[in-house]
Write a structure and sequence with these properties.
Low-confidence stretches: 1-10
Structural class: alpha+beta
Strand order of the largest sheet: 3-2-5-6-7
Largest sheet: 5 strands, antiparallel
Radius of gyration: 20 Å
Helix content: 25-40%
Mean pLDDT: 86
Shape: elongated
Order of helices and strands: HEHHEEEEEHEHH
Strand content: 15-25%
Distance between the termini: 66 Å
């Protein structure tokens, strides 16, 4: 009971897994918890546990599908609302955004460099 009162009383903290879910980085709290347990959410080099309290002003590094999001926490919420509300909880750093976009462009370039696909492969195509 006292934990709920602390949140209402203006204590500027919320659980990391709840914040990641509320900020729409993960579709469910379970996925957010698993990402924390797998070491995909960090502050600097320190891996964070799902129950750790997040505070306004912290810089998080969140790795999703090999892409790193570097975000500054601007607000706290333990309620998942609309996407427009979720975007107000964080701001992605310019360096992080540029690096992530470069990684996406590199991925696309690597995929486009393969041989052209003509449809369903024949037996001969599968042997080579």
């Amino acid at each position: 009971m006292s934990g709920a009162r602390e949140q209402e009383g203006g204590d500027e903290r919320t659980r990391l897994d709840k914040w990641l879910w509320a900020a729409r980085f993960y579709k469910t709290r379970r996925l957010a918890t698993e990402a924390c347990d797998a070491g995909k959410v960090r502050i600097g080099d320190q891996e964070l546990k799902p129950g750790r309290a997040v505070r306004v002003g912290e810089r998080l590094i969140i790795v999703i599908e090999q892409l790193a999001y570097v975000v500054d926490v601007l607000g706290l919420s333990s309620r998942r609302g609309p996407a427009s509300e979720a975007r107000t909880l964080y701001r992605e750093t310019e360096e992080g955004r540029v690096a992530r976009e470069a990684a996406i462009a590199e991925r696309k370039a690597n995929l486009a460099g393969g041989p052209p696909v003509r449809g369903r492969p024949t037996k001969r195509d599968r042997r080579t």
